[in-house]
Amino acid sequence: MSSKERIKRANQIYETQLREKLEKDYKGEIVAIEIESGDFFLGKNEIEAYEKAVNEYPDKTFVYKRIGYKATHFVGSL
Q: Is 49 part of a structural domain of the chain?
């Protein structure tokens, strides 16, 4: 599966299964999504979410999203 397809699948999981559940209480945190199972792992940052995710799925890749925002990272100045 290509990176583009993994991102599309993760966005679908987020929109249909996770958004409503997470945005109220975890806005601004990071969610790592394992796209085959739909499992997800929360962290205050990517490292924390990653560590939780690889403990459960050491051989999988994950897609990261910042809860409540369109992008995980902001590049530029404010």
A: yes
Q: Residue 77 — very low, low, confident or very high, per pLDDT cuts 50/70/90?
A: low
Contacts of 10 (CB under 8 A, 6+ apart): 33, 35, 63, 65
Please name which of 25, 32, 27, 14 lies closest in space to residue 67, comparing C-alpha atoms.
27
Is there a domain that residue 58 lies in? yes
Please count the structural domains in the chain. 1
Side chain identity at 35, as an amino acid letter?
I
Distance CA 52, CA 78 (A): 31
Q: CA 72, CA 65: separation in Å to the nearest integer?
A: 5
pTM: 0.86
Q: How far is CA 19 from CA 14, 28, 35, 66, 75, in A?
A: 6, 12, 15, 11, 24
